[in-house]
Each structure stands twice: as structure tokens, then as C-alpha cells.
Amino acid sequence: MSRFKYSVGPWNVHEGADAYGPATRETIPFEEKIKSFKQMGFDAIQFHDDDAVPDMNNMTQDEIIGEAKKVKALLDKYDLKAEFVAPRLWMDKHTIDGGFTSNSKEDREFAMWRAFRSIDIANALGCDKIVLWLAREGTICYESKSPVQTTKWLIEAINRMLEYDKKIKIMIETKPNEPVDRSVCPTLGHAMAISSATIDPSRVGGLLESAHAMLAGLDPASEIGFAMAMGKLWGVHLNDQNGMKFDQDKSFGVENLRTAFNQMKVLMENGFGKNGEYIGLDVKVMRTQKQDGSYKHLENSLKIAKMLEEKIMKFDYEFQKKCVEERDYETLEMYVMELLMKG
Ligand code: 3MF
Ligand code: MG
Description:
Structural class: alpha/beta
Bound molecules: 3-O-methylfructose in linear form, magnesium ion
Order of helices and strands: EHEHHEHEEHEEHEHHEHEHHH
Shape: globular
Strand order of the largest sheet: 3-2-1-10-9-8-6-4
Number of strands: 10
Radius of gyration: 20 Å
Low-confidence stretches: none
Number of helices: 12
């Protein structure tokens, strides 16, 4: 029995298209996906604004809220919660040069419209968290934007969201690059600094994705620990990554098992989940997978996470203390390796 509640987004089950090739699997309807998520043991669903309300750009605020309420009824039917809503600010023609930090004022206003509607959708779905994955907030040509101005625009946009809804909480999902070359807010350290510069730091925190930390050359467990020390880690996207290349969204733990162990360990030791936080997955199944294997990466990631929970329950803190007292870290390291490798 896991001590955590787990969440997943509908985009975790996808058709297999990548930058160099088309889809390899059929689209699975939204309701079928969430039904399967429930059967697999997930407790909550992560949403993009247009996962909940497709075609929202062509709808009024009332119409958007009406559609979102239908999705809430569907969640209720399967006894699932909504964890967060994230404005998808990277697909639209208005966000070619970024959203909140676009050089175009009109496009910055479009990004705000999507952010405000995301808050409306979150309220209709009964959740109080917005995620900002700042996909195109940065540069692909360094001289095209001022790093000072873009940082200020980002803080201003967050302030406007905090003013729009006095209860909403914002989690910044940091990523150093891809699709941009250089992001405005690449690490959780940056997110914490942005938080403290807003009008209500108590409502601005972070979401750490394992692969994103690795792309920044950082250890995800340390990023998690840093934000937890600030009381501001409100979400995670656990997955894995083979080195500093494109964002792979591999199943949790399949490349870096010890790092995965330490992510779970820091979450468990510091009471993650005590305020209702979910352990989120953000994983992609391999493009080679056939239709009937569309969920295998989720099953595997959940299984690995839960197996690591069990390992951590067995972690001998007395033995660790002794090794630390004796400054015998070689023995401590070997203890961890044996713990992970023994059945
Ligand atoms: C990209 C991501 C995103 C975000 C999602 C929710 C598509 O690297 O991780 O997944 O997690 O948009 O904010
Ligand atoms: Mg993510």
C-alpha cells in the first residue's frame, strides 16, 4: 500500500509521433484514458487547459466554464480529482515567440487570457493549482529579448494571476531548454526567486520534473530537497532521462535507479503529500510500442515508484548514522547499492 497519491496527464498516453516521424498508434478517447488511469491506481488527473476544453480559443468564458463542468462530472463518475490546470502556451500561433514574455504585446495579452481561463477551468474542476511550464518563455536568438525585461514580464504575469483569483496557487515547472534554447526560468532556484519577487510568495511554488533537472545538469533529488526546504514543492513529474540531450520522458527509474531512489527518499523523509500533494508522472511510452502497450510505461513507472517506496522503508537509518559518524561513506554507498540490487 503506497503512502502517496499519484497523478497522470492524458498526454502521457499518446500516438507516438516525434519530430521526425508520424504517429504509430491510434488516438484513445479521453474518457477511455481516465477509466484506465483509475484502474491502474491513479488518484488524480493533470490537465492542460485545452485537454479539458478543446477549441477553447473559439469559446466565451461562460462556454468554457460550462464545458469544464462536464469534465468535472466525468471525473466524479470515476472518483478522480483534478490536480492542476496548465495553460498550453506553446501550440498557438499567438505564442510563436513565447507567451508572457513574447515581444508582441498582443500575444502577451493572449497568454494572459489563456492563464485566466485556465484559472476558471481549475475552479470548475475543483482544484486550486495552476502549473506554468514556460515552454517558449526564453530565446532562440539571444539578442532578441532582454533577460531583465522577460524576467519582469514573467513576474508581472504571475502577479496578474494572483490578483485574478485570491485562492489560486501557481507552480512553476522549470526546464532549462527545449523548445527554447535558453529559458527565462531554468531551475527551481530561479522559480523560488521569482516566487519571492511576486505580490504573494506564499501562493507561488514549484513543480520539479526529473528529466528537466537532468537537462540542467542537476540532480533531481537535490532540486526537490531545495524547494522542500523553502516549503514550496507542491508537485513533481517523475520520469527519467539518459544524459543531457532531448527531453526523453522515460519511465521513472529506468536509466538512473539510484537517483530515482533518492528522489523518492527525499520526498518520503520530508512529508511530501501531507498537504494533499500528488506524485505526478510525466512519461512517454516508446514510439515502437504497439497499440495494446500504450499504458505500459505508466504501469512500469508506478511499479518502480512503489518498489522504491518499499526499499526506502527498509533503509537502515541507524546504519547510515554509524557510517556518517565514522566518515565511512564507501561502506554507506555499498549499503545503498546492495539495498537496491538485492531482491
Ligand atoms: C514538457 C513537459 C510538459 C508539462 C505539461 C504540464 C507536456 O517537458 O514536461 O508536458 O509537464 O505541459 O505543465
Ligand atoms: Mg512535465
